[in-house]
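Example record

The entry below shows one chain as it appears in the dataset: sequence first, then structure tokens.
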Amino acid sequence: MVRCINLDWLEVYCLEDYIGYPHDAEYFRRQGCHVVEREYGTPSYKEMFTVYGRDDQPLLEIRRAPKSAKGIQQNGVLEPMACHVRLVNRACYFKDAAGMLQQFLEQHNLCYQRISRVDVALDFELFDSKDRPDKFIQRYMQGAYAKINQANISAHGTDSWNGRVFNSLKWGQPKSMVTTKLYCKSLELKQKHDKPYIRQAWQACNIV
């Protein structure tokens, strides 16, 4: 069976070095980068901005300036120099995405600590048994199978007079170290936001 395997999310936790600190939006502008800042941060960070690549397309997202820093705020959680660096989805589909991220961190002296999140996408049309994923999901929701591990389930679909149709299943708790999701990517691209680079990856693997 034809398979297409890609990174779909790659995010790392880093520490900024003291020489280049702060690695804020202005720092990257001084390095010649095109940077777009978000007006607000995140629950954990005061700042969030996107660094663009040489093709003037979004490349990386950086969150920095912890709201709760150890030694600064009482009961601080993150290191004062902490930041998170994430490849945008499009960049994850580049040939050497991980190497490109590593090069960026080294170039700007961002000290890698650990992976914060990594998603690996396995795109396929049929299981090895030639069973269709949508038919499998329907039987699973009807109780035809039982899953031993990652027992927490969340499902999405539609309900109508003709019956319920499920197009997405997720196993594992939201804060689990590992979760698994089975869903119709074609439907997601159609309903939410088309991503031509994903369809190009499918075509390269003879998935039409």
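Notes for this example: Residues 97-107 form the longest helix (11 residues). Helices lie at 25-30, 89-92, 97-107, 133-141, 185-191, 196-204.
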